[in-house]
Design a protein that fits this description.
Helix content is about 25%, strand content about 20%. It is α+β, with helices and mostly antiparallel strands.
């Protein structure tokens, strides 16, 4: 019997004869006639190959695990958002997300049969915890709350969030928290800001008359690609919501480009779009105590909304404060920190004008098309008109620490804005608030 046979049979081999390698154990490269360095090199390559195989198996395992997590995330998104959103698109936000969770609680999750309603999706990083990712809000013009809220309400303040400013930046009105709404194409489809896109569907008949769907990114520094994704999600979700609500609406296609909306305020002398009226007004009168900064947006020929943000720089606050008497003088110092001086003009046309309101604490009041007036407590004044035979509302909001400072100039300011927008839009039947609406209370 050969040595090999004796080895397989378990026979004791002569001294100095190595046992045979088990069949299941791979052979380590190297021959006896090779030098020690060559044998060690071959053995190292062998070990590296085995390590590579192990790493590949581990990577495959992680890939399969991620696929499972992603599938679970898609199911959570579909459930929370009532099947209205493209879950793959949501998971592509923020550079790509695998793990998510939905807002929890008895009232969490979007319900198409109980509007207004919303869903909120959070990102779950590998390190644990969670942070903001995405929200979808579905509204109609027939809600018991207005689609558009104006006035000096805390959530409407444009300079609340200091996250975009450095610790030593004392210029509170240099940059707004968000851009003013830009029209999607000609504006008939809706508008977008730096972190959200709103698509509006006007229903041909019945209720609701108008459907509004907003897709929002709940994190800072939203990229142009993410903004495009939000537009696609909002567009698709609006189409699905309209179908479920029996809203016979035709949604135009998204524009090919969504120019990046800016947040930095500029000189009113450079205004050429939604703040162009203010440049014209300053050309006819002294600025006095009025703002020296503006943030505008492009004008859409078919937009149902438009707005212009105006604010006072720190240097202008100092100039104005020198001429103020008490109690208005006491508002100058807070204007440099937590209560900046600002105002905003906004117009709402057609079905959008039928769902505009203002809030004071928990009380919400709808503004009626065809009326005009002012509410100092809410910091809002408004005028009405009809544009292309449809109702329109034109509003002026002034921050509560600023309205007393500019009370003598507000009537002329609102008239300048309304004269411009109604002429540009071909509106008629213009109604202005009485002079008494601007008198300090």
């Amino acid at each position: 019997m050969s040595d090999a046979g004796e080895d397989r049979a378990g026979t004791r081999l002569p001294e100095g004869v190595p046992p045979m390698r088990p069949r299941w154990l791979p052979r380590i490269p190297g021959r006896p006639d090779q030098g020690p360095w060559r044998r060690r090199s071959n053995q190292l390559l062998y070990v590296l190959a085995l390590a590579g195989m192990g790493a590949s198996v581990w990577a495959l395992w992680l890939t399969l695990e991620d696929m499972g997590e992603k599938a679970d995330s898609k199911d959570r998104i579909a459930e929370a958002c009532a099947g209205l959103v493209d879950a793959d698109a949501v998971l592509s936000l923020r550079g790509g997300v695998v793990r998510t969770k939905a807002d929890s609680g008895a009232d969490a999750g979007l319900r198409i049969d109980s509007l207004p309603s919303a869903c909120q999706i959070y990102r779950v990083p590998e390190s644990g915890g969670s942070d903001g990712l995405f929200s979808l809000v579905v509204r109609t013009a027939d809600d018991d709350r207005p689609l558009h809220v104006v006035g000096d309400e805390s959530r409407l303040e444009p300079f609340r969030n200091p996250a975009g400013r450095s610790a030593d930046d004392e210029d509170v009105t240099r940059t707004a928290d968000h851009a003013e709404p830009h029209p999607l194409g000609d504006g008939a489809l809706g508008d977008y800001r730096d972190d959200s896109v709103t698509v509006r569907a006007v229903c041909a008949s019945g209720k609701p008359t108008t459907l509004s769907v907003t897709a929002r990114a709940d994190y800072e520094d939203v990229s142009d690609q993410d903004r495009r994704t939000l537009a696609e999600v909002a567009h698709g979700s609006a189409a699905r919501a309209a179908a479920r609500l029996k809203c016979d609406a035709k949604l135009s296609a998204l524009p090919a480009q969504l120019p990046t909306p800016g947040r930095e305020l500029g000189d009113p002398k450079s205004a050429k779009a939604s703040c162009g009226w203010y440049r014209g007004h300053l050309g006819r009168t002294d600025r006095g105590r009025l703002p020296d900064r503006m943030l505008e947006a492009p004008l859409g020929a078919k937009s149902s909304t438009e707005s212009c943000l105006l604010a006072v720089s720190p240097s202008a606050v100092g100039e104005i404060a020198d001429d103020l008497k008490e109690p208005d003088r006491e508002f100058a110092e807070p204007a440099l920190t937590h209560s900046p001086w600002w105002m905003r003009t906004s117009s709402f046309l057609g079905t959008q004008a039928e769902s505009v309101g203002h809030s004071v604490f928990t009380d919400t009041t709808f503004l009626k098309p065809g009326t005009a007036g002012g509410d100092e407590g809410a910091g809002v004044w408004w005028a009405s008109s009809r544009c292309d035979g449809r109702p329109a509302l034109h509003t002026l909001t002034v921050s509560y620490t600023y309205d007393g400072v500019v009370s003598g100039q507000m009537a002329a300011l609102l008239r300048a804005y309304v004269d411009d927008v109604t002429k540009r839009r071909g509106c008629t039947e213009v109604v202005f608030p009485p002079a008494s609406a601007f008198a300090p209370k």
